[in-house]
């Protein structure tokens, strides 16, 4: 099947592309609202984009043309955010954070999550998340209704037990983030892995 995703299949583009470009890691992002409360939301248009300097990118779509989601608006104002990775134990809580709550209501309280201070930025991290990546906004590209936020990584937190303390390599039996699969609401576990040395 062939699809002209800028023409006849424009409306189906999201469903088609987000169905085949899988699995995607999920950035569970905390930011500070202008009243100082903590906002949290998941984004699967996300990845590590480079190592020197270390950068991540994720892409909130606008709520409507020109109106950013709260995460994008907060980052534009404060320049800071924390990206957390989501394991199976946090899947439900992450999903709760995708709710569209009235202003002033906290996704984190609804999901029964505690925060703890970050090391380098004012935005706190989710205390129980296995991995938290403190970022400052490097830049935001606006492409149509997408905002591609590029974050400069300032600090990495990894919960005890995930890394081998000697080698700093992930111990796979202790870290299995979930991935986003096809629309509308499919996910995968990453507990089944295989190794393939490079030629
Ligand atoms: C697993 C998952 C992945 C998501 N990925 C994205 C994404 O990449 N871009 C986006 O705009 N919304 C995405 N969403 C929807 C947002 O999380 C949702 O719109 C949220 O309410 C935005 O919150 P905010 O307004 O506080 O930023 C995703 C939702 C889920 C559950």
According to DSSP, the number of beta strands is 11
Text of the CATH class: Mainly Beta
Going by CATH, the architecture would be Roll
* Cofactors and ligands: flavin mononucleotide
Main beta-sheet annotation: 7 strands, antiparallel
Major sheet strand order: 2-1-5-8-9-4-3
Distance between the termini: 34 Å
Please indicate the percent range of residues in DSSP E strands (runs of 2 or more): 25-35%
Radius of gyration: 17 Å
How many domains make up the 3D coordinates?
A: 1
- Give the number of helices: 4
**Residues in helix, %:** 10-25%
What's the CATH H-level superfamily name?
Electron Transport, Fmn-binding Protein, Chain A
Low-pLDDT windows of residues: none
SSE-based structural type: alpha+beta
Order of helices and strands: HEEEEHEHHEEEEEE
Q: State the shape.
A: globular
User: And the CATH topology?
Assistant: Pnp Oxidase, Chain A
Question: Can you walk through the features of this model?
Answer:
By secondary structure, the chain is of the alpha+beta class. It has a single domain, classed as Electron Transport, Fmn-binding Protein, Chain A (Pnp Oxidase, Chain A, Roll), CATH 2.30.110. It contains four helices and eleven strands; from the N terminus they run αββββαβααββββββ. It has a seven-stranded antiparallel sheet, covered by helices on one side. Strands 6-7 form a two-stranded antiparallel ribbon. Strands 10-11 form a two-stranded antiparallel ribbon. The protein starts with 12 loop residues before the first helix and ends in an 11-residue tail after the last strand. The model has no long low-confidence stretch (mean pLDDT 97). Flavin mononucleotide binds at residues 26, 39, 41-45, 59-61, 69-71, 95, 98, 100, 180.
